[in-house]
Amino acid sequence: MLPKIPTVGEKTIRAKELSKWEASGWKFHKALGGSAYLIRKRYSAWEQFEMRTRALFLEAGFDHAISDIENFHFNDLGPQIDVCGGVGNYFVVIDCTQSTRQHPISIKQKLQDNHAKRGRIEKAIHQKWGTKYSKLVMGVCVEGVELTKKDEDWSRDLEIPILDSTFMEKCLRYVDTLGSTLRYQVLGRLGVRGIPVEGAKSGHFKFPAITLRSGDKVLYSFCADPESLLKIAYVYRLERFDDKGYQRDLIQQKLRQINNFLIGPGYFPNNLVVCFDADHGKVEFVDRSGKRLDDPPQGTLGYLRVPQQHSIAEIIDGQHRLYGYLDTDKNREKEDASRLARRRVEDRLNVVAIEDPGEEERPLLFVDINCNQSRVNVKSIWSLMGDIRPKSHVGFVANLVKALNGKGPLKGKIYIPGKNTAGGRSINIANLGKGIKDRALVSVGKKNEKLDWNLFDGTRSSGEYPSHPSADLINDFNIFFGALKSTCATDWKRQSGGFVLTNNGLNVMLRVLAQTLRVFHGHGKTYKKSTLKSFIGGEIGKYIESETPRTLRSRTLGEDGRSKTANGIWERIAKRNRLSVGSLKTA
Description:
The protein has helices at residues 18-22, 45-59, 107-129, 149-158, 165-178, 182-189, 226-232, 252-263, 319-323, 334-346, 362-372, 378-388, 393-406, 429-438, 471-487, 489-493, 503-523, 529-536, 539-547, 549-555, 559-576, and strands at residues 8-14, 27-33, 36-42, 83-87, 90-98, 135-143, 162-164, 204-214, 217-224, 233-234, 272-276, 284-287, 301-307, 313-317, 349-354, 414-415, 427-428. 35% of the residues are buried. The protein is built from 21 helices and 17 strands. It starts with 7 loop residues before the first strand and ends in an 11-residue tail after the last helix. An 8-stranded mixed β-sheet has the order 10-14-11-15-9-8-13-12. A 4-stranded mixed β-sheet has the order 4-5-6-7, with helices on both faces. Strands 1-3-2 form a 3-stranded antiparallel β-sheet.
């Protein structure tokens, strides 16, 4: 994690230096005895951003980064420098600046000033580290600036890229997830790619591949481990000052969900799509004997030889699936973290590489994949699965949800495509079905997986599901929803304006049901309406009223919020029944 960024700075100075420091915004705080004073300064938003950027360079593992993030007067390399650090044989220097109405800046002058420093900095780098850094990369990071065509021309002519502050802010959000790979993302944004992968045993990765032809395009479908892909991949983010950017931001919640998906038995059957840069080491297709084929025919089996260089494979589609292999939780249990690390090396992802369509075409390809192709609504898929694959897990759950919509407390409250209209229904088959499936409430289970606590009442040994849920199973679910209706009567009457009768509300309740079933199974309690109502009491209703439905609806928009809410309810139920309080196993 990044170190805490201070909002107020403190320094001890000699009394005779006070006027000098006051001129730069510091204020006298108190005398320390002798001739020493303690002075303070409230850091501006821009100064805090500058400190966060220095912290980013430290946490991302840049060599020789400024170690004191509050050092605004670093001049070890001659002129004053805001942010710096080394990667391989590149040394990066970033000048951070802000433009306001009161203090506007000239981009041209800022670029010229930095260009004038280059010679002195290069000389200092050579004196300090010899030949370690053979290339100096300089950039200007600005806030509150609208670039003109002339600004862009000056930037290109002086070879000093201009970055917007949003780029660094995005890097800050990813530093815990992407770690040292961020160094190459920063370099890529500064125009540097193709840096050799550290510790690489050979100059190329060799991935099993097959040639595909679609119209005039040549594509290669290949298999690669996530560990290797993470080293060569990069993503063009949508941001200011970069007309090549088009990708959306990584969603941390989605990465955490994928982490948990991979820690379990989950796998990805669909492919990633990438484009390899042609100007940083050519990607080659070779046959099984190792002979290079420049124009391989359709269906040729062989290998794709990819240079072992950072940031040469642009991800067009599938960024979350790939980055989801990086652990986003530093507090994860050791066993789960180890499994995720193993899968990063042992898994194989299917990747389609497109014969480089040119950087100007890549955004159009991204749009085509994500927008123009027809998509099947996930609610329709759940509804169809009950009809065409009733004996699959999803199909069985889908038919259970349809039955709950036909009889019981949830009658007529669930939107099911092809069966009713969505008007006035805040619950849908996909959300409720996924909640039942994810909580393993009717799962048969796999070999050596003990799910005898759940509500499934069919034969487990066959590993298959009946063509339709039994009347007893439907009744068992209605017992739970009936108990909710009576113990949360006030909120139930609010319907979609409350919490229980919403998609996320029921998701939380299903987590509570799963934990309740585990307790009942472990303590030999009979699952019936009277026992369940006594066990729950008024705790769920009281919790909803104390937190308010509106607050809970907002809080449970994300997975973390649903998990925490379920834990909060369970703590009250556990206390009521004198059980040990712990996190929900199913949360």
